[in-house]
Write a structure and sequence with these properties.
The chain is α/β, with parallel strands linked by helices. A hairpin with a 2-residue loop joins strand 9 and strand 10.
Length: 430
Amino acid sequence: MRFSSLEAWLAWQATASPKEIVLGLERIGRVWQRLGRPALGAPVITVAGTNGKGSSVAFAEAILQAAGYRTGCYTSPHLLRYNERIRVDRTDADDDAICIAFERIDQARGDIPLTYFEFGTLAALLIFADAGLDVVILEVGLGGRLDAVNLIDPDVALITSIGLDHQDWLGNDLEAIGAEKAAIMRPNRPAVFSGRQMPASIRNHARATGAPLAVAGEDYRIVRRPEGWDLIGEIAERRALPLPGMRGATQLDNAAGTLVALDCLSTRLPLDQRAVRAGLLAARVPGRFDVRPGTPTWVLDVAHNPQAAAALDDMLGDLFTPGRKIAVLGMLADKDAAGVAAALARRFDSWYLIDLSGHPRGRTADQLAEAVRPALDSVPVITGGWIDETLGQIAADSKPDDLVVVFGSFLTVAGAMAWLEQGAGKAVKV
């Protein structure tokens, strides 16, 4: 075996490819062929979209688990441990299983270069193929058409809301981005769009592909009730559902789209109302409006584009705290920091900006300040250093009834999560 530890494998993978992101299926397809294209032996649900992917995967996993099905889930990125990306029966894959999969991939690839993400995708597929699963849920990492996850033909494709993100890779408008994500559809296999505004390119691709497409607001709808909600549609009709355990109006969109996608597989994976209700209440995604009670109250959210920031603003409106509202923001250089700041400008009394320059695509706090200050008018903006330094300063200066919201990047939230879970005392460089 090339390496004996997961840490060593990951450190090597991070430098083995000339580029961090290399879109395309030709190389990974050749390696998958050399591995023998192991059968997953279960229906596959693939989830793409700009925002809402993680929540939709969590709803599907929780509902299917509550129904007694054996699930495999592949998501990215991780927050604290790489193992979070590969789950079998809601349990993270252990180091040994991932290392064994990496070794198989390394032996099969020969001189074919693979990125960090491609290694992970193939490892997840190998682990799932050996696990005897009832269903596999795959989350697209970037786009859809050329993402490594699109190596696998899904039995149902779920596309969540579409927004502007990753424009350097996917295009500069919603139609171009929608076309990239629509490419997870397959001929004669059902697809669902769960967002509120669907680019025409998604419908066009469905028609060209011959994929039956169910669209939110057209083929199914949500009816709010005082005590919950109903899902009304031709494919799925479920009544007297509880509000999801995850907060926010957009979570109803995600939950409804997930239920329609699951009901597209009802002949293979029947679901009773008990499982649906239990799953809706149980589903959680760490780092998505993740409220950590304490003094002050902390909220962690990976929102890193204007659409996600607007959803965060909506959710914060339902969370009352009498004290100051403090933003902690750290973002990568290729993200729309000005748009994120504008979406949340009225929400906070002060903004603390952290330094992510240790990441290849990160930006310094000063660079971030230059981007966000025009949107924040006269609100105080404080530039800081590492996440632990900034949070330590805030914790020392805050009062018990204050609210601190940490957002802008998975890296930012991961650093805050580690700082909080380690007793708010150990340095965390991101």
